[in-house]
Amino acid sequence: MTDKITNVLVLCTGNSARSVLAEVLINALGEGKWRAFSAGSHPAGAVNPLTLAVLAEQGHSVEGLRSKSWDEFAKPDAPVMDLVVTVCDNAAGEVCPIWPGHPSKIHLGFPDPAAAIGSEPERLAMFRAVYRQIEAKVRRLIALGPERAAEI
């Protein structure tokens, strides 16, 4: 058993919903053995309020969560990532920066809850559904470990 912490960068375009949900879930379910960060190729500038609502109702802290550029994680002083996970098809298709450490990459696509239309309760239901989908994939990722992440 190793004490190494697995660093994961979760990417999406806006970094306001899916990538933030995955970041929080990896940090919570990883029990200190996984450390997640999230970023976007074109960050929205703020985390979607419904993302924050779902995380809070699930008992997660939302303190310090912010929408940020993936450029922060391509700098020489950035944490070295072991794994980069794209959670939206747009980010998966974009040319990413060169990440220090040359991490493994996987794509786990999820519907964009920020694009949901309807009443607030209907949109909130979409955020909850995507949260559950991401939670299932994160549990599988952690069970398999970073070396088998491509099997998800």
From TrEMBL:
Class of the enzyme per the UniProt entry, highest EC level: oxidoreductase
Superkingdom as given in the UniProt entry: Bacteria
MF-aspect GO terms: arsenate reductase (thioredoxin) activity
Domain Phosphotyrosine protein phosphatase I as annotated: residue spans: 6-144
Keywords, sorted A to Z: Arsenical resistance, Oxidoreductase
E.C. number(s) listed in UniProt: 1.20.4.4
SUPFAM superfamilies associated with the record: Phosphotyrosine protein phosphatases I
InterPro entries assigned to the protein according to its UniProt record, in alphabetical order: Ptyr_pPase (IPR023485), Ptyr_pPase_sf (IPR036196)
Protein name: Arsenate reductase ArsC
Native species: Phaeospirillum tilakii
